[in-house]
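User: I'll paste a sequence; please echo it back and then give the predicted structure.

Assistant: Echoing your sequence first, then the prediction.
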Amino acid sequence: MMELRWYDILQEDGKPSADYLSEDRRQRAAAMRSEADRLRTVAGENLARQMLAERLGCAMKDVPLQYDEDGKPTVPGTGLYVSVSHSGAYVVCAVDDAPVGVDVETVRAVEEKFMRRVCSEEELSYALRGGDMERRFWELWTAKEAIFKLTGHGPLLKLSKLALPEHVTVCYMERYGCALTVARGEMRNEWED
């Protein structure tokens, strides 16, 4: 069962604690240029640990959360999958018993010139159809990112909700001025390009 939670770094009481981060993760967060980036990074890990601890019936400090060489969070030996994303004031975490990828983006204006660089012709046609170009663009973009986080395969610009990899589903929503897509896949040993 997939669970999704939001965290607003501007509205929550106090700063998220870095107590549960490994020394490497603490140093990585401390090296970030902006305070907002540090807050999102720490909040993302805390949210993941909180959700996983609830599922595993253990303390947050005992969650076997690890990061692979690409920075993707993993929880080996638990049968659980986790994905974290952040944009603006929001951090989002998805925990599932099947592979999962999540992406959130603060909705903002997008120039058609930029869209032409990052969208296929089919995607561009979809985005430009109707009167809500920005919403459609962010729907496509968050799908690309979520699918990439799910599969670990790209190139990112070739991924699309309009041509999903086999065994992948996507769910799109808008909330708090953000676009969010969750990509979910069946458990497989290898993802096909």
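The beta strands are 3-8, 66-67, 73-74, 81-87, 90-96, 100-106, 168-175, 178-185. Confidence is low (pLDDT under 50) at residues 189-193.
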